[in-house]
Sequence to fold (225 residues):
Amino acid sequence: MTVWGNGLAIQPTVSNGGQFGAPRGQGRTHAGADFIGYSELRAIEPGRVTFAGVLTPAAGVSVAIDLPSKIDGHIVTIVRMHIKEGSLRVSKGSHVVAGQLIGLMGDSGNAQGKCDHVEVRFFRNGALQKTVDPVSWIARRIGGRPAVLSSDQRVAKAFVNGRTAPTRQAPIRGSLARGITGTFNGFTRGERVEGNDIWFRGAFTGLWFWSGAFTSTSTQGLAQV
Ligand SMILES: [Zn+2]
Fold:
């Protein structure tokens, strides 16, 4: 069973700027999603607690739970950060069921206000392989039909304009410079253009970028939107 961090099948709100992939300065991006609007943090999946305490000064009080079985050969770990000091209800080695109370929402570490930072990490041979958008990942595990199935990162091989719709006639609202990695959560087919007519939608900007300007035009990992 899978639930959202509030213990329900109803998706909680993600804070402004708390989306997965949102820029965090110095080329870094937000590796999780910051959910708000509830106080009891509940286990999203069953599993074994592999960490409970202060993970790093930035993360603050955190809990890591490993899912009972591998997914695509990866150990999947769900990490929660910024938990209220003194509120932990689990300890390292505990086994939890989905929906079990693990602590209270707080702002420990470098949180900008109270939030439930949820991070979904995939490990292989002890090495972190990737983190994925918790919103689409949890929605899929619950069995709902998220508007967007997944996100993926692409590197711009040229300057690329971000447009408000998947057509070159649409207004430009931003751009990505060459070598910049963008996070995209879907594609569509816009106008017919020479060679390639796929457009990628920016995961947190909502802008459309023509795929011909990226090192990969593959649509693997992206949802048709
Ligand atoms: Zn966060």
Observations:
- The radius of gyration is 19 Å.
